[in-house]
Amino acid sequence: MKKEIDISIVIPLYNEEENVELLHEFVSKALRESGRRWELIMVDDGSSDATLAILKKIAAEERNLKVISFRRNFGQTAAMAAGFDLAEGAVVIPMDGDLQNDPEDIPKLLEKVEEGFDVVSGWRKNRKDRFINRKLPSIIANWLISRITGVYLHDYGCTLKAYRKEVLENINLYGEMHRFIPALASLNGARVTEIPVNHREREYGTSKYGISRTFKVILDLVTVKFLLSYSTKPIQIFGGLGISSLMLGFLSFVEISVSKFVYGADVTGNPFFLLFILFILIGIQFISMGLLGEINIRTYFESQGKPIYVIKEIVGGEEKS
Ligand code: UDP
Ligand code: MG
To answer: Is residue 295 very low, low, confident or very high in pLDDT (cuts 50, 70, 90)?
Structure first.
């Protein structure tokens, strides 16, 4: 029989050669002390330094370590997704590979999962990063993400989180979406909570991100909001915009008609003339986009046999003996 695993730790690594050995040491120590059956999955995201070579060296001696190596740099989200796909543990815990997260927090996360939560989000309450280009954008982003998704968390950006494995099975990650997993999971009915976790300064290697990440996060948020609210009914949002636009077009039409036929004015230079044409065209475009969206979602759900709902359990109906 296959060995059952309680915890899978997933760590994405991109050019972290100075960190890998210490990281393995700290994480495996914390896991051994936890007394659970564990595995450690380290994903080399196409590093150009010695990261992979060091990982292979450690894997030769550590039987709980699995190493995945990418052909090129696919990004942190892809690296995490690869780890999630391979993970066998009942609980999956991703963390950063730069020693900024503290493996000592793992038991605290597990405790919350055992209380019955499906997602436990780490909150770097005392975050050790620069204020102006990291913490401030993060405060604004977390506020926005919480407001828009309705899942209130202080720290979406913290990689250290714990997920019950089933939660991840229903979620596909694209772009930089890993930070939105709690929001996507809650869409499927997961119970989400957060606990403060330790955060340390990055001592070795450099951060892979700059301020431009903020804009990517905002754009991803638009996608997530759309998926959360309208993914099974695109015509409602595009159709709504389309109808509003057609109505504005109609009002513009009334305005030019009155000018021309009641007041006998020349309407060639009337701005409403242009607005009339613009609004009608945009309105038709929006409605067509909504219809295309409707066709797309049918392809998405029906071609994969995906239901548009998630069942928790079905009670009754079994043969009684
Ligand atoms: N990372 C990765 N692929 C990338 C960029 C980053 O696997 O393309 C890893 C990186 O090695 C680290 C984690 O993702 O383990 C978080 O990255 P980083 O520490 O640079 O982000 P920050 O903490 O500065 O937000
Ligand atoms: Mg970091």
So the answer is: very high
**What's the pLDDT score for residue 279?**
98
Find the 202 Cα to ligand 2 centroid distance in Å.
6
CA distance 24 to 35: 17
Contact 290, 231 (CB under 8 A): no
Ligand 1-lining residues (CB < 6 angstroms):
12-14, 16, 45, 73, 75-76, 79, 96-98, 100, 207-209
Q: Residue 79 Cα, ligand 1 centroid: separation in angstroms? A: 10
Q: Any idea which ligand is nearest the CA of 76? A: 1
**Residue pLDDT, tens place only, 54-104:** 999 999 999 999 999 999 999 999 999 999 999 999 999 999 999 999 999
What is d(CA 97, CA 34) in angstroms, rounded to the nearest whole number? 20
Say how many Å lie between the CA of residue 207 and the centre of ligand 1. 6
- pTM of the model as a whole: 0.87
Contact (CB, 8 A) for 89 and 8: yes
Residue 321: which pLDDT band, with cuts at 50, 70 and 90?
Answer: low
Q: Which residues contact 155 (CB under 8 A, 6 or more apart)?
A: 121, 122, 123, 124, 127, 138, 142, 194
> What is the atom index within ligand 1 of the atom nearest the CA of 79?
7
